[in-house]
Design goal:
This protein is an alpha+beta fold. The chain is 20% helix and 35% strand. It has a 6-stranded mixed beta sheet with strand order 7-8-9-3-10-11, with helices on both faces. A 5-stranded antiparallel beta sheet has the order 2-1-4-5-6, covered by helices on one side. The chain has a 5-stranded antiparallel beta sheet with strand order 14-13-12-15-21. A hairpin with a 2-residue loop joins strand 4 (57-62) and strand 5. It is globular and about 65 Å long. Bound molecules: adenosine-5'-triphosphate. Adenosine-5'-triphosphate (ATP) binds next to helix 1. It comes from Rhodospirillum centenum (strain ATCC 51521 / SW).
Length: 392
């Protein structure tokens, strides 16, 4: 994350019915993901930031400007906050064309604000061919892109996204994510995004705020938090893993492989259509790593990284969780442990049986060889790099 003053400072308390929210965090440039179980308080928190709900006590500051300060009697109404809000459903005006829906957003842009031209937003979101259509003639993904465009045309200083991809199928989600990345990287617009999907968070977010029953269980850079075993129960166990920064080194055409350079060591992955020098991030799932305490020989796996154990985490394997996965299958409670690792300065995470951890004597500081099967690294796990200023 970029150094300097946070873009957003939040410190709020609210009670609604039996639920109490006590949340304190700061967010910098880039995308801040609010992640947590259903009912953890994500939408409530986003509504407080937008000014659609009011806390009993609190302070919310955007770009150094207080939007809410109950102690000082500051209460900026929602339409004067310069915050764009995109909901789960696009909520477009059905009787207006796409162009008219977009221009509606413009009505809320202050005269003195730096405004992105309509053409730039249309181009960034790839909606030029849709301008004369009405919403009922758009796909779900197109509708969401228009809703994002409408929010952007109000010249916001912050964009709130409350699960804007939730109602879309996997193909439509994959279609929209690159546009959200363009907003993050080209418009440099800070975003707060509610998400249930850890893959989505890993790909898009730079900061993670983990909510648990109305409280912030942890907040910080996504990569660091995703490698912390004690947080896995809140992250969704089965897909635990980390992101490795990588650069395409070259292709091995005869074998259909691509060579990546990472700080952790070289990595062979199934061939990518990316030129040498392209910067990427590779999501390596904890369940795809094998650990050895001696240099392995005669392996079919192509990748062996040298590293060391950082921590042997909480026991996992709660029956019933993540049905169909390791933890939800035959494993008895406590059969599996998560092992935090470091290789060449990069955090990695392995999920192994408690028996293996005991037999190998896994403990902090122990040197290990980390084996990554090439075929375990799927194409969808390889995503564009973050811009340098958003890297942690
Ligand atoms: N108007 C309300 N009155 C009373 N309780 C409410 C109200 N709105 C929400 N709640 C409760 O507040 C808690 C937090 O709700 P919230 O919608 O913020 O959770 P969430 O993390 O966004 O959940 P989800 O992922 O399911 O959308 C829940 O227990 C919910 O039942």
């Amino acid at each position: 994350m970029a150094e300097g003053r946070p873009v957003l400072e939040v410190d709020v308390s609210l009670t609604q019915g039996d639920f109490t929210l006590e949340a304190c965090f700061t967010a910098g440039q880039g995308v801040t993901a609010l992640f947590g179980r259903s009912g953890a308080g994500k939408t409530t928190l986003v509504n407080l930031i937008a000014g659609l709900a009011w806390p009993r006590r609190g302070r919310i500051v955007l770009d150094g400007v207080p939007l809410l300060d109950t102690a000082a009697g500051v209460r900026v109404p929602p339409h004067r906050r310069r915050i764009g809000y995109v909901f789960q459903e696009a909520r477009l005006f059905p009787h207006l064309t796409v162009r008219q829906n977009l221009l509606y957003g413009r009505l809320f842009a202050p005269r003195d604000a730096a405004r992105e031209p309509l053409e730039r937003i249309v181009d960034l979101l790839g909606i030029g061919a849709l301008l004369d259509r009405r919403p009922r003639h758009l796909s779900g993904g197109e509708r969401q892109r228009v809703a994002i465009g409408r929010a952007l045309l109000s010249a916001p200083r912050l964009l709130l996204l409350d699960e804007p991809l939730a109602s879309l199928d996997a193909a439509r989600k994959a279609e929209i994510l690159p546009y959200l990345e363009r907003l993050r990287d080209e418009l440099r617009l800070p975003m707060v995004q509610v998400s249930h999907q850890i893959e989505e968070v890993a790909r898009l977010a730079t900061t993670l705020v983990l909510l648990d029953a109305g409280r912030v269980a942890a907040a910080g850079p996504v990569t660091a938090l995703m490698a912390q075993p004690d947080l896995f129960p809140l992250l969704g166990r089965f897909e635990a893993g980390t992101m490795l920064r990588a650069v395409v080194e070259g292709h091995d055409g005869d074998w259909g492989l691509t060579r990546l350079a990472t700080a952790a060591g070289p990595l062979m992955v199934p061939r990518l259509e990316a030129a040498p020098g392209t910067r990427l991030r590779v999501r390596v799932r904890a369940r795809d790593l094998i650990l050895a305490t001696a240099p392995p020989q005669g392996l079919s796996a192509r990748n062996t990284l040298a590293g060391e154990v950082v921590a042997v985490g909480g026991e996992s394997g709660e029956p019933g969780e993540d049905a169909g996965g390791v933890a939800g299958g035959d494993a008895a409670a406590g059969a599996i442990v998560d092992v935090a690792l470091r290789a060449g300065g990069e955090p990695l995470l392995a999920r192994v049986t408690r028996q293996a951890a005991a037999e190998l004597g896994l403990a902090p500081g122990l040197p290990v060889w980390i084996i990554v099967k090439t075929v375990a690294v799927e194409r969808r796990s390889i995503v564009p790099a973050l811009p340098a200023e958003l890297e942690c």
